[in-house]
Amino acid sequence: MAFTLNEVRERTYKPRDAWWTVFLVDPLAGRLVVAASNRTSITPNQVTWAAFVLGLGSAACFVMGDWSWLAAGAVMYHLSFVLDCVDGKIARLKGTGTVFGGWLDYVFDRIRVLACAVALMWGQYRLTGQDLYLILGILVVFLDMLRYVDAFQVAKVRRAMRRQLDEAIGGPDEEHDEEHHVEPEELIDLQRGFRSRFSWYLVARDWLRDHRVRTHLMSGIEFQMAVFIVGPLLGLVVPVTLAAAGLLLVFEVAIMYKLWLSSRDLTKVLSGMRAGG
Q1: Which residues touch 104 (CB under 8 Å, ≥6 apart)?
Q2: What domains sit in the chain, N to C, each tagged with a CATH number?
Q3: The whole model's pTM is what?
Q4: Residues 90/37, Cβ–Cβ less than 8 Å
Q5: Which of 169, 208, 239, 249 is CA-nearest to residue 17?
Q6: Quick check: 87 and 47 in contact, CB under 8 A?
Q7: Series of mean pLDDT values for 10-residue runs along the chain (277 residues)
């Protein structure tokens, strides 16, 4: 049976994703998935390796320093990221994903960022002799690590909050079909504090959701693309990297602030339940 592009979209696209992925990656990645799935027997892990090799090729271009090599490295980095999305889509489409494949994909992603950050900033340091590029290299690696560690911890805290709500409200009766179970978040709004302070957020969020874009507009993905694609292509490595770093930190602080407000709302809700009980 041949897979269609609509099937790929329905079965492999995330409900919400980074805007760079939605607008600049998925249109190409989806078509590559259709071609690879219907015409080849390529595995997700093989695509992961291909993306990794392209990423290292991008680093090799960056280390050369001058603009023509930077442009080549930027193009290779984007293609590497496209393939990095293709492997997961093939895995979801065919049901061939593995735990090892997920680990390999994550490790290769971090190595690619490290290699490209070192190569890009070292190449510019060799070309200009400015120590600022060495500092920027450390900054890029640190922020990439911070973003992924923070994302893991935020997800962990949110799961813990959902468990507390579920236990307080009463989880689904194991003797009954879970299809009638209502998620705690649907019964209790833990975003009340945030929304009361930022009413405009709902309008922006709904527009972004309609276009399958998540509200975290400067995530690790956009940060990487700014540093390794936009900056090199424009020949503005320093200002673009600094601007992307600043925006990433702003959005990270916003996420922490929103999580803090949600935790306060949860505490109030649980206290009210105990008092009422």
Answers
A1: 45, 48
A2: 5-276 (1.20.120.1760)
A3: 0.85
A4: yes
A5: 208
A6: yes
A7: 91 94 96 95 95 98 97 98 96 90 92 97 97 97 90 86 79 45 47 68 84 91 97 97 96 88 81 72
